[in-house]
Write a structure and sequence with these properties.
This protein is an alpha/beta fold and 205 residues long. The chain is built from 11 helices and 7 strands. It folds into 2 domains: 125 residues, Rossmann fold, CATH 3.40.50.1000; 67 residues, no CATH class. It has a 5-stranded parallel beta sheet, sandwiched between helices.
Length: 205
């Protein structure tokens, strides 16, 4: 029986790795900021794009966040505390997602496709995931970030599959739509049941 996909391409943050923003939220409230303000500043395109494309280091990204927070708060001390809390947020892995991907990997290549920083390899090592994927496609290393077409093409090529035979999983709708535009089967990830359902034809088959 023919497999439904020749490769699984999966996002990292928001699917496999999640952050605990508890400490940051408490600090934001103590500084009179709305919850999520620091995240919005960090993820603003003008600050996120350079670090995601490997043009600046994580340290330089943190400095830019710090500067913006200081302008907002008028306090260097509070800004630095918030930037540090953002940078040091504790990460956890979704073991159920990883288990599903490991099972899929017994049938087809599983490729990590992530908008990441130059620190990704270090993060994967710390989390014990250095050898968890057949390939890792990092935006900071390839110079293209989702939803740019090029990063999807690189991922499919490294997986040894055509776009039409790739299953793509991501927690951002625009990234999923871009994958579908290239002919991939796109899965908008909200919870582990979404991944389980998408992989069922592959695992059950």
């Amino acid at each position: 029986m023919e497999l439904p996909y020749d490769a699984v391409l999966c996002d990292f943050d928001g699917v496999i790795r999640r952050y605990d923003a508890g400490k940051l939220t408490v600090l934001e409230r103590s500084c009179g900021l709305a919850e999520g303000t620091t995240m919005k500043i960090a993820m603003a395109p003008e600050r996120l794009a350079p670090v995601s494309l490997g043009q600046i280091t994580v340290g330089q990204w943190m400095d830019a966040i710090d500067v913006e927070l200081e302008q907002l708060l008028g306090s260097a001390e509070q800004a630095t505390a918030l930037a540090r809390a953002f940078g040091e947020a504790r990460a956890r892995l979704d073991e159920e997602v990883l288990d599903l991907l490991r099972r899929a990997q017994a049938r087809v290549p599983v490729v990590l496709v992530t908008n990441a920083t130059l620190q990704l390899e270090e993060d994967l090592q710390t989390l014990g995931l250095t050898y968890a994927f057949d390939e890792v496609v990092s935006s900071a290393r390839v110079g293209a970030a989702k939803p740019e077409q090029r990063i999807y093409e690189i991922a499919a090529e490294r997986a040894g599959a055509t776009a039409a035979r790739c299953l793509f999983v991501d927690d951002r709708q625009e990234n999923v739509e871009a994958a579908r535009g290239l002919g991939m089967t796109g899965v908008f990830y909200r919870e582990v049941a979404d991944l389980r359902e998408a992989l069922a034809p592959l695992l059950d088959g």
